[in-house]
Amino acid sequence: MGLSQMETSGGSESSGGEDAEARRSRRGHVLAELMQTERVYVQELGSILSGYKEEIEKAENQHLLPAALIGQADVLFGNLHELFTFHQDIFLKDLEKSISATELVALCFVDKRETFFRLYSFYCQNIPRSERLRETLVDTHLFLQACQLRLGHKLPLAAYLLKPVQRITKYQLLLKDLLRYSECGSMTTKLQQALDCMLVVLKCVNDSMHQIAITGVPVDLSQQGELLMQGSFLVVSENKRDLRLRIRPRRRHIFLYEKAMLFCKPATKNSHNKATYHFKHDLQMSQIGLTESVKGDPRKFEVWRQGRAEVHTLTAASPDVKRAWVERVKRVLLDQLNELKGERGRQYSAQHRTLIQTSSWDLVPPAAQPQRPSATVTNPTRTASCDTHDEPCWSTDPSDDDDEEPEHPPAVGCALAALSDYTAVGPSEVSLREGQHAELLKVGCAGWWYVRLAAGQGEGWAPAAYLDQRKTSRSSSRSHDRLHDH
């Protein structure tokens, strides 16, 4: 199809005709890539279902399965079949009908945004369960090896289960390109709406990938509601029952759910040589208060248990990050108030009048202020790797905790090769090209490696399933078995 000649709507082309024609041609190339990659994506989802899931569910194969996998196909694959049906029977057909105009393509995303969010939210929420199950199986189990061999897949199952994550990332990149090559007007308006939809889904994907790494949680995360936000903070904790007790700043990764706030420590899990977010403690949202501002630093706010017996002062990476968190916590607290009815609601409201404060220095009369311990935090001399930006850390130096066990860092310096292309989801990751060489710098959590790309192409996190040790590399204390060497 002559996609470069299909653009018939959206914006004026009277000025700079040659430039407009060049933009139209580029849009045509992007639309062609969208169609081609969508068909490949549908084919890949179908191959996973037929080559793995159906084989696992066959009665005659049950004796070949590891015990942990019997009856667990839905845990391993989540709602992958529903994703496949949606893309094959609905979204791909919509794109094929709409490919003649960029605006119509944008509407495909906008009209299906609720379906995208519902399906991909479910898939992402299942990722931690699937990851835990796969860790007990190991991708090199003979049955899964046989499935991979029959399919002719060069990547293990772990990599193919990341395909939905990669697809959402690809959509937002393609939509950004279409927006860049489009004229102002209704075309750009629709494209921006489509991009906004995919960015919301991408945030869900990113949050869920970080949840994989939480260890030692005594509560069921599936019962804590939706994961609303997650990020890295410096935290100072105080116990008002002993005013002398003041814990120095510590790096904590905080996960905000609808019903709880989890404080986790970025650490290294020695048993598997991989970084994790190790659970330290939680605050139930029904029991906490919020102080929006802390004197002396626009990046700080407080969360505390009722009565301020336990106070946590949080320092965000920037004032903007702090504001976003404060607004989200306030919304959760106010939603709780709105859910309560009648006398119970009035009692709860009266109780909560002092729970949402504007500043930490107006809690006591002015005359008493000198006696109140300062709520400000001096900056620690050690700066963690993620102090200067809002990108959540997959790994950080845990030496600021007294309760941390001795570390045994994995060997570094292994030469690696990319088995297939991979598109980075966030700024902490790196994109890979098939055959590209890299060096292992750090082993992270949940099957992620921190690598330096050859020829000065940058460094960052990449999924280990997409990487293989080169035969010429130095031996490492830890390696991933593969079916094929590349």
UniProtKB/TrEMBL annotation:
Residue intervals of the PH domain: 220-334
GO cellular component terms given for this protein: cytoplasm
Gene3D superfamilies per the record? Dbl homology (DH) domain, Pleckstrin-homology domain (PH domain)/Phosphotyrosine-binding domain (PTB), SH3 Domains
Name the keywords, alphabetized.
Answer: Guanine-nucleotide releasing factor, SH3 domain
| Cross-referenced SUPFAM superfamilies | DBL homology domain (DH-domain), PH domain-like, SH3-domain
Bias regions of kind Polar residues — which residues? Answer: 371-386
List all membrane-crossing ranges. none
Domain named DH: which ranges?
A: 26-208
Q: This chain belongs to which protein, by name?
A: Guanine nucleotide exchange factor DBS-like
The cross-references to InterPro entries, in alphabetical order and at most eight, read:
DBL_dom_sf, DH_dom, GDS_CDC24_CS, PH-like_dom_sf, PH_domain, RhoGEF_Guanine_NuclExch_SF, SH3-like_dom_sf, SH3_domain
* GO terms, biological process: intracellular signal transduction
Domain SH3 intervals? 411-472
Q: Which SMART domains match?
A: PH, RhoGEF, SH3
> Native species of this protein?
Arctia plantaginis
MF terms in GO: guanyl-nucleotide exchange factor activity
Q: Which segments carry the region annotation Disordered?
A: 1-23, 360-411
- For the keyword Repeat, the answer is no
